[in-house]
Amino acid sequence: MTSRHLRSLATILLAWSAISALGALQTYSDNLRVGVDSHYLPLLANWFLEYALPLIVLSVILTLALPRWPVLVARPRNVVLLFVGLVLLFQPAQWLWIAWLRGYLDIASLADLRRLLMKMLLVGWFTTTGTFAALLAVHYWRQARERELAVQRSQTDMANLRLALEEQRMLALRAQLEPHFLFNALNAISALVRAGDTRVALGGIGRLSALLRYALAASSSQTATLADELQFVRDYLDLQRLRYGARLQVRITGADDSLHGIDCPPLSLQPLIENALRHDLDCHDGPGDIRLHFSREDGHMLVTVANPVPALASPNPGAGLGLANTRDRLRRMHPAASLRTGIHGRDFVAEVRLPLAEA
Hints:
alpha+beta, rod-shaped
């Protein structure tokens, strides 16, 4: 027997003991009013034995049976049949029990049997019906509660599963992005090595080490600040400047101290700059014109990276792995965060939209 069953049995015993105590008290009070000499404890014993004990047995049977065979009350017809069977079996048994306790079973004729039946005919109907209704209500309440808890557990399990999947997805995206960044940075240094500029190449390796330290630190966090990301971009541009020299022209506008309080996914700005380099400086021999601008609009921080589109550019520039991962990571960080890319006039524009925290 489980602890739940034991609690139920204790509750039943306590409830009927209290009812017996109140019933005996009412009988004792009535006797006093009419001048009948009586004692409370014998009245309590009679109440408990005659009325409470049979109903305790009934309550225990129903409490154990209903959870084990829920089909008994699964439909209204089943409830009616169970109640009819209860009346046909339990009510006569209760009458015989009370008659035996009161000494009414000394039956010598049919007239005695008729008088006994008339005495018992109205005994117990209300209490039996009320007990059945109360236990049925408790059973239905427990079923509803168990269904509610099952739904809550299911929702919690689903939320935990989705969170785990999202975390694995973010780790997979980051695992794709960091080698991608490293590959492009090493390309910049290898270009210097091939050009025979060893001193500058060594300086590039030092800068790459600093970038990798930030990337490793960022890999252990779900978010970074825009200020940290901007500094990482500046360090990345210093590394790329070793490769492109004076051709690398980047204008950064709108950056202020408020960037320290705005979160974004780690390594989310560098792919935008990398994409601009690939579709600007790598497509011609002249100087570049890359613009990085920060602005506020309608409760959002807009980060815009623009670069000229060469005449022979692909019809869908900027659809590489870095931008695709950045777009996905932004969406997973916050539903209102987004990355939009497209050609505006003669420029290719990548626009990151980050929600600002409400004051």
